């Protein structure tokens, strides 16, 4: 359903389907839509070389031209009154105005000052229009986004918003457009200057309210739930069989790791924290099988990996948040902490801001500060004068893949053949011909397989017999008589709650102005996607928790764990969702502690509605609860120290077995010597942590790579903590045996010995023959890359925008969650995107830090100034009261009404 040709004469361009294969090795680096170096970027390298010859003065002027004016006075047409923007020494703006219109307009202006290029790229990405800026390199992402129809959903949501929310969005857009007015692209961003050199003739469109709403779809995509697990279960079962696959997707260990809410249940359609009910088990049904189904799912997995990291990876993402009441603090007042873990980028996803009505009233009710998205009005996470809140991903199962029977323009539902719904899309491609696509949908959702070359995927499945990809596929097909039969094409459609319009934007602004538990819960009732765990504290001493999000109620034939048979009527969603009042919530629990780290929300034995089976396994949450429960004199500083806790649960589980392995004395036992005194902490200077993590990666590869295809090999995250911890107790588990060695049956100690020997050799080559000179930080580096020109493939251009070399501690599924992917190496791929701690007795004593600075302009002093402190575990003071803000102010910009 794709039609497009290249405008080049010397060779035909790769089709969008052909280019997908070339991008799979970039799935964890920056802008994943790039299929290679941008050919037209070569001219930039020539220009830069000439600039160096001509002198640096011009270069400095070009670089500085887009930097914002942060002091003095600027007239803005449309303002109702005077607005003051006070920036501290980190460049963080605090905005003061007399009306909501002016406050939102000023925020739009300030966001555009600091980060308009990022905002512009985001709106192109969420509208499926990256190709207009970047040519065929953006096409793969555009195909997915257009198929899902994000922009159309955002346009529908705009019509559903409350008048106050719509007014705020329009005023914000006014501010962005006031900044754009009369400004050349060279005055907007260095990136536009470089793109212009390559021949891009481009003037940014005016900002609109829909541009802001569409970015919420990107965050929903990033935190979309268990889509990867659905595909992974099906493909793993095809590779190793259903029983073995179940071992690799363990159930949540409720007996070891407590859920967030340990009391209450449903009383009718309302969650009551004092009720003690019992739940029920779900029907489990195997996924559709067969060669064509395996090929279609593998193709969909590959297509989805083409969505750029800018829009979120949706894999391995977690967060920490917790709140304690006054019984656990030194001051007797609650303290709340939050550090969301997201993919790393430059600039980071958050930008800090304060938004203050000079006189708080019903006409101008906002007095809030925290972390915002550039491009979206208001504050997403933070505190106002009365309450504080923090988010972690609840991860409800809000996506389902359906294997469909498709024939021509129809699909099968029960005994009926129903027409596919269609819409046509045209993607404009820079330096190329437009690409026309027809998006086809069943009642479940759009067909993602229309973006897959199924014949190519079938060939790949046949070739993959050598590495076991479809070793069990025929068995699965025979067990599941519902596999698509002859005469039917295989399709895979996506049902996702984010494709159903809902006024989530109402919730964000209402949350900023909530003043107590009731108004806080009322605000979150409109928060549809992504589903979140939200912790709460207020100045009156209360603490609380609320689960949010649209969670579909499924029929009996679909448990959400694996792709469902779309032609079976009992697999469809009912069209109903778990009522908001039925979602788990708790106020002032007896323990005085609420910690959320993506663990299970509540034991399903007490709560029948199915939220998901794919929780984080609970290692971080258990560690956080232990640290909080051990201290009844908690302070801001102690809370910050907990956020930096680098104790390794898998280190504690695996190390005793490593110490029992016999190794040759001397060279190969040096690493083992380090482990004998290791305290399981993963600081950047730790030699033992360096050795352990290299061993861990080797263990994963040597245990599972012989039976799993490369795409399904272990990433080393929390699920693999549980899998390995369980088989460690079984020295002769079938997983230890290397199936590629025909005449040998390996056991646990064989694999551990091989892993330790290989780890010693690897560290010798990477760092030093002297084991005492090894450091975890030298392996575990943080590199921040611009999602666009920072992935150009032109070294001199990448060096303009990328920054790196921070040696950090922590690790995947630790409280200090600097995640790395064992399939790729040791570099940080996800990280705490910010950290904040808020004491409710003194809001001016709160602390915050961002992964990057507030500026999106390369070489600006606030481009990565916070990263240095972040990497050292430091924070910034967070002034909130007007006196404290003025005292901390370094620059003051006055915005005045203009003609």
UniProtKB/TrEMBL annotation:
Q: Which residues form the active site?
A: 319
Keywords, A to Z? Calcium, Hydrolase, Membrane, Metal-binding, Transmembrane, Transmembrane helix, Zymogen
A Gene Ontology biological process in which this protein takes part is: antibiotic biosynthetic process
- List, in alphabetical order, the Gene Ontology terms for molecular function in this entry: metal ion binding; penicillin amidase activity
Instruction: Enumerate the InterPro entries for this protein.
Output: Ntn_hydrolases_N, Pen/GL7ACA/AHL_acylase, Penicillin_amidase_A-knob, Penicillin_amidase_dom1, Penicillin_amidase_N_B-knob, S45
Question: Tell me, what's a Pfam family for it?
Answer: Penicil_amidase
Q: Give the residue ranges for region: Disordered.
A: 1-22
Q: Which residues take part in binding Ca(2+)? A: 230, 397, 400
Q: Where are the transmembrane segments?
A: 38-63
EC number in record? 3.5.1.11
Name its co-factor(s). Ca(2+)
Which residues constitute the signal peptide according to the record? Answer: none
Q: Which PANTHER family match?
A: ACYL-HOMOSERINE LACTONE ACYLASE QUIP, PEPTIDASE S45 PENICILLIN AMIDASE
Instruction: Please report which protein family the annotation says this sequence is part of.
Output: Belongs to the peptidase S45 family.
Name under which the protein is recorded: Penicillin amidase
Species for this entry: Nocardioides aromaticivorans
Organism ancestry: Bacteria, Bacillati, Actinomycetota, Actinomycetes, Propionibacteriales
């Amino acid at each position: 359903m794709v039609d497009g040709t290249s405008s080049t004469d010397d060779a035909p361009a790769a089709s969008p389907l052909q280019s997908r294969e070339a991008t799979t090795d970039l799935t964890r680096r920056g802008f994943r839509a790039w299929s290679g170096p941008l050919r037209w970027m070569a001219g930039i390298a020539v220009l830069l070389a000439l600039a160096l010859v001509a002198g640096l003065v011009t270069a400095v002027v070009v670089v500085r031209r887009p930097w914002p004016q942060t002091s003095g006075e600027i007239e803005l047409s449309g303002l109702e009154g005077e607005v003051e923007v006070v920036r501290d020494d980190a460049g963080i703006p605090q905005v003061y105005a007399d009306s909501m219109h002016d406050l939102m307009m000023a925020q739009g202006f300030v966001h555009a000052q600091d980060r308009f290029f990022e905002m512009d790229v985001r709106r192109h990405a969420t509208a499926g229009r990256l190709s207009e800026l970047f040519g065929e390199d953006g096409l793969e992402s555009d195909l997915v986004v257009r198929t899902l129809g994000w922009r159309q959903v955002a346009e529908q949501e705009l019509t559903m918003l409350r008048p106050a929310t719509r007014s705020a969005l329009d005023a914000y857009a006014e501010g962005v457009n006031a900044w754009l007015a009369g400004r050349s692209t060279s005055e907007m961003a260095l990136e536009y200057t470089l793109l212009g050199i390559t021949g891009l003739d481009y003037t940014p469109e005016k900002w609109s309210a829909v541009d802001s709403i569409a970015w919420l779809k990107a965050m929903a995509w990033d935190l979309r739930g268990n889509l990867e697990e659905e595909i992974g279960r099906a493909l793993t079962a095809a590779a190793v069989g259903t029983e073995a696959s179940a071992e690799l997707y363990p159930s949540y260990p409720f007996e070891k790791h407590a859920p967030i809410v340990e009391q209450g249940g449903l009383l009718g359609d309302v969650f009551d924290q004092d009720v003690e009910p019992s739940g029920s088990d779900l029907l489990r049904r195997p996924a559709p099988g067969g060669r064509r189904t395996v090929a279609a799912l593998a193709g969909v997995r590959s297509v989805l990996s083409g969505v750029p990291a800018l829009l979120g990876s949706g894999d391995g993402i977690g967060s920490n948040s917790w709140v304690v009441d006054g019984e656990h603090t030194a001051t007797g007042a609650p303290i709340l902490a939050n550090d969301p873990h997201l993919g790393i980028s430059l600039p980071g996803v958050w930008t800090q801001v304060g938004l203050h009505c000079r006189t708080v009233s019903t006409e101008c009710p906002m007095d809030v500060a925290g972390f915002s998205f550039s491009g979206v009005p208001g504050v997403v996470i933070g505190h106002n004068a009365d309450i504080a809140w923090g988010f972690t991903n609840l991860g409800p199962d809000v996506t389902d893949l359906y294997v469909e029977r498709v024939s021509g323009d129809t699909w099968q539902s029960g005994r009926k053949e129903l027409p596919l719904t269609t819409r046509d899309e045209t993607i404009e491609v820079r330096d190329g011909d437009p690409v026309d696509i027809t998006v086809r949908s069943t009642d479940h959702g759009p067909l993602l397989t229309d973006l897959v070359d199924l014949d190519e995927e079938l060939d790949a499945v046949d070739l993959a017999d050598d590495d076991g990809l479809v070793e069990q596929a025929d068995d699965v097909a025979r067990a599941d008589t519902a596999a698509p039969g002859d005469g039917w094409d295989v399709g895979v459609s996506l049902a996702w709650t984010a494709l159903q319009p809902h006024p989530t934007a109402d919730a964000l602004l209402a949350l900023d102005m909530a003043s107590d538990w009731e108004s806080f819960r009322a605000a979150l009732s409109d928060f549809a996607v992504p589903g979140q765990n939200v912790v709460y504290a207020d100045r009156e001493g209360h603490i609380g928790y609320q689960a949010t999000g649209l969670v579909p109620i499924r029929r009996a034939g679909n448990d959400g764990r694996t792709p469902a048979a779309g032609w079976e009527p009992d697999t469809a969603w009912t069209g109903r969702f778990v009522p908001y009042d039925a979602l788990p919530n708790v106020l002032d629990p007896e323990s005085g502690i609420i910690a959320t780290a993506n663990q299970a929300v509540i034991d399903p034995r007490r709560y029948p509605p199915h939220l998901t089976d794919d929780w984080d396994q609970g290692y971080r949450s258990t560690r956080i609860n232990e640290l909080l429960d051990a201290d009844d004199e908690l302070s801001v500083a102690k809370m910050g120290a907990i956020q930096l806790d680098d104790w390794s649960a898998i280190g504690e589980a695996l190390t005793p077995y490593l110490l029992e392995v016999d190794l040759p004395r001397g060279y190969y036992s040096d690493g083992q010597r380090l482990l004998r005194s290791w305290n399981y902490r993963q600081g950047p200077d730790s030699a033992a942590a360096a050795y352990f993590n290299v061993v861990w990666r080797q263990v994963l590869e040597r245990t599972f790579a012989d039976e799993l295809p490369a795409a399904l090999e272990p990433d080393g995250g929390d699920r693999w903590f549980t899998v390995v911890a369980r088989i460690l107790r079984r020295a002769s588990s079938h997983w230890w045996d290397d199936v590629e060695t025909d005449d040998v049956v390996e056991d646990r100690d064989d694999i551990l010995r091989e892993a330790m020997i290989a780890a010693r050799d690897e560290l010798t080559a990477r760092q030093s023959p002297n084991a005492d000179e090894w450091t975890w930080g030298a392996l575990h580096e943080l590199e921040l890359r611009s999602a666009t020109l920072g992935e150009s493939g032109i070294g001199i251009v990448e060096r303009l925008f990328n920054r790196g070399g921070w040696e950090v501690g922590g690790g995947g599924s630790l409280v200090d969650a600097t995640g790395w992917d064992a399939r790729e190496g040791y570099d940080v791929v996800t990280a705490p995107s910010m950290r904040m701690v808020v004491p409710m007795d003194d809001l001016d004593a709160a602390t915050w830090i961002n992964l990057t600075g507030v500026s999106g302009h390369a070489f600006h002093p606030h481009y990565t100034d916070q990263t240095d402190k972040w990497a050292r575990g430091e924070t910034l003071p967070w002034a909130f009261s007007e006196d404290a803000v003025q005292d901390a102010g370094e620059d003051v910009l006055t915005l005045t009404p203009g003609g």
